[in-house]
Every structure is written in structure tokens, then in C-alpha cells.
Amino acid sequence: AVVSTQSTGILTDVPVDAPVMTDEIFGPVLPVMEFEDIKEVIKFIRKREKPLVCYVFSNNAKLINEVKTKVSSGTLDVNDCLMHMVVPTLPFGGTGHSGIGKYHGKATFEQFSHLKSVLHKPIG
Q1: How confident is the model at residue 7, as a pLDDT?
Q2: Which DSSP string do the residues of 71-124 spell out, in sequence order?
Q3: Mean pLDDT of 49-63
């Protein structure tokens, strides 16, 4: 079933092997899946490539911490889906398949700068 408005596509009952579930999504599309508990969600995510962003909507601190510690992603966004992109001091970027490096503010400068480490120990 697809519920859609002009600006957002919410997809339900999407097969796990569908392109929208296996490729990175860049656009107003949201596949929604139902799970019984957070352990199922974490297992589902960890079987796939690391996401660019992991979104969690909850007030349950234990659940949020479990996702934070057990899911590897470029960014973890809790109870929001946009602010991580507009806070210039919050580095944004992926890990693994979703990209390498962090951007925004100082992180952008550091990403594109070559910082050379030099150790010079005198002889004698």
C-alpha cells in the first residue's frame, strides 16, 4: 500500500529486497516497517550496509541508548529528521558503504585539509 501526498511518499508492505530498501534513498520517500521489539530492528539494520542516517522516534531512553550503542551509522537523529543537516557545528557524513568523512563547519575544513603528523626525535 502507498500513502502519498504531493511532497512525501510513505511506503508500506515493501519487500525487503526492493530497491527502495537496498539502495540509499535521496528524496521524500519513507518505507515504513513494523517490528515487535527493538532487537528485531537492530538485527534487521545490522544485516545490511551501514545507513547514512539512523532515525529513532522515541522518548524511551533505554531504547534510544540501545540503538545508539548497537547500530553503526553516519549520524543518529533522535526525534527529528532534518535538524542534523542544518546545524553547522554538527558534522554530517557516512560510514562504510554510505561514505567516508564528515562535513559541515570545522569538519569540512578538516576533511579537505591534509594534516601531516611529524615526529622528530633528535639522535644522541
Answers
A1: 62
A2: ---SEEEES-SSHHHH-TTS-B---GGG-S--BSHHHHHHHTS-----------
A3: 90
